[in-house]
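Bumping my old thread because nobody answered last time. Still need a sequence for this structure:
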């Protein structure tokens, strides 16, 4: 899938602070693609909304670049979600359910279904999926050398998926094919909250790079209740989103951060 299959919009940074609650009248899922490199003044301004725990977690990273990206993705997550919840970004509190899936505390209100989200990052890009009342999962990966790709495929791919992967011709095709398949598998695992494990081998997906992403079979049935999309959000990246709703609609929102010093 290419970006031609999505409604794609670019949002300048201040716009992200505007109320986004009306978004779900037109689409089921908003997918935010955000850069994780920003000038220091912007990072410092955004850090105001971080919790004490998030600041402490950032401080534990050994390298400054890792600290900066961690703090930025947490701050941007708060800013974006606050637009949907119409709340102060600093007031948001998060918890993890039994499967380790993050959720916003008190994310509904006024009888509405709760706002749900899922986040993934790789290299200098973050993908944040936002929905209302839907279990969703997202994954983004920089396409790169993976010496252990075959071993990972043996552990997590179904027999049919492994045959597709093994049949790809050439190193570049196999590298692209691996991340095409992996992002789809991981997005589904994150949507269910079950995480990565050998049980994923029993989840059958269409994983060929040029094939439309879809779930073919689940151990307990119900594949038709899911939407799975695979796409290239930026040059050199593969991404996927899974949602427990048939034919879920979505759009891609590119966050444009200022680059000035």
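Sorry it took so long. Here it is:
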């Amino acid at each position: 899938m290419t970006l031609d299959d999505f409604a794609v919009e670019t949002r300048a940074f201040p716009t992200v602070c505007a109320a986004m609650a009306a978004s779900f009248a037109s689409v089921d899922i908003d997918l935010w693609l955000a850069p994780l490199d920003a000038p220091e003044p912007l990072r410092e301004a955004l850090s105001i909304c971080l919790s004490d725990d998030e600041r402490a977690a950032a401080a534990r990273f050994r390298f400054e670049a890792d600290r900066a990206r961690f703090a930025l993705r947490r701050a941007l997550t708060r800013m974006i979600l606050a637009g949907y919840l119409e709340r102060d970004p600093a007031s948001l509190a998060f918890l993890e359910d039994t499967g380790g899936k993050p959720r916003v505390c008190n994310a509904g209100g006024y009888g509405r279904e709760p706002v749900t989200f899922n986040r993934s990052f790789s290299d200098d890009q973050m993908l944040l999926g936002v929905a209302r009342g839907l279990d969703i999962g997202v994954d983004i990966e920089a396409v790169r050398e993976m010496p252990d790709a075959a071993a990972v495929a043996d552990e997590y791919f179904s027999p049919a998926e492994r045959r597709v992967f093994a049949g790809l011709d050439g190193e570049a095709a196999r590298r692209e094919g691996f991340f095409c398949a992996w992002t789809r598998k991981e997005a589904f695992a994150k949507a269910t909250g079950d995480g990565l494990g050998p049980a994923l081998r029993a989840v059958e997906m269409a994983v060929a790079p040029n094939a439309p992403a879809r779930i073919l079979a689940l151990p307990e049935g119900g594949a038709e209740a899911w939407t799975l999309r695979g796409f290239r959000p930026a040059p050199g990246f593969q991404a996927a989103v899974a949602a427990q709703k048939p034919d879920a609609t979505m759009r891609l929102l590119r966050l444009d951060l200022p680059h000035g010093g």
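The longest strand covers residues 115-122. Let me know if any region looks off to you.
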